[in-house]
Every structure is written in C-alpha cells, then in structure tokens.
Amino acid sequence: MTDPHATLRGLLTGRLRGHERRLRRFTERDWRRYGDLLAGALLVAVRRRFVAGQDRAPVIRFVASARERYDAGGHDVDPVLAEALVWAALGERQPVPDSAAAVVARTVLLLGLLEDEGLTDSERDEILAAAAQAVDASTQDAERQETDRTRIRDRVRGAVPGREAP
User: Fold this and answer.
1) Predicted structure pTM score
2) Which of 13, 33, 91, 99 has the CB geometry, 3.0–4.6 Å to 4, for a possible disulfide?
3) Crossing angle for the helix pair 4-12 and 121-159, to the nearest 10 degrees
4) What's residue 87's pLDDT?
5) For the chain, what is the largest distance between any 2 Cα atoms, rounded to a whole number of angstroms?
C-alpha cells in the first residue's frame, strides 16, 4: 500500500526516485487522494503568497519563473493554465478541472512557491497538514451530503407507494 501524503512530501523534499517509485504503485484511490492533496497544498501556498484582487503582474512573473525553473523545455506547463490555477486558488475564477496538464502545472507551481519561500521541513509539513485537513473535511462533507440525499430519496419512496425517487 502507498501513502499519497508521504509521496507528495517526498517530492517536495527532493526525493524524486522514491516519489516516482511510489507513484507507479498508486491505486485509483491513491491517485485521487494525491491529486486532492496537491490541489490543497497549492491552495494553501498560493494564499500565503498572493491575495485576491491584487495586480496580475506578480502572478504572471511567478508563473514565468516557475516554468523557467521546472519546465526546461517550456512545453509541459501552459502559462494560461498555470495562471488560472493561481487565480482559482484565490477565488478569482472558477476552479480548473482536473487533468494531467493541471496536475503537472500544480506540481510546478507548488515547487516554485515552496522554493521561493525557503521553508523549513516543519513549515512544509504544516502546509501539507493544512492541505490534508482541508481535503478530509471536504471528503466528510461530500459523504454527509450523499447520505442526506439517500435518506431523502428513501423517504420519498416510502411516502408514495410504488413511486421511486429520481
């Protein structure tokens, strides 16, 4: 069994060989958790550096800098997508749908933000813990909503004989 949290932490601390090995063993559930943790960590890191309503130039400069450092060929990270991820994290636009390109861009942006801040291991762990906490709370909310929908559907079915709820 793999641990998406440990895998992401390994990436953020520069243990690339271990990161790649763990990724190869991921189940579908691990991939979902990893993607959620990555998105959550990016959200926390973006909000530490940028604020909603600010000038666009610092975001554009940051994205260009991160791409220069982590996208050597300049083809793996679409700058428009990367900027959209930052603005979405700030609540300035709709969330960006998950895709392979979004995962790559989130990874590059997160690496850039954490490197720029020069975080200690404990500060990096705090960001990952905050991301995990947010993901867990979101997951619990989604499960609670699904349970509520099921209860409502069951009540409707029971209230009208022979009728099934949508």
Assistant:
1) 0.79
2) 33
3) 150
4) 96
5) 65
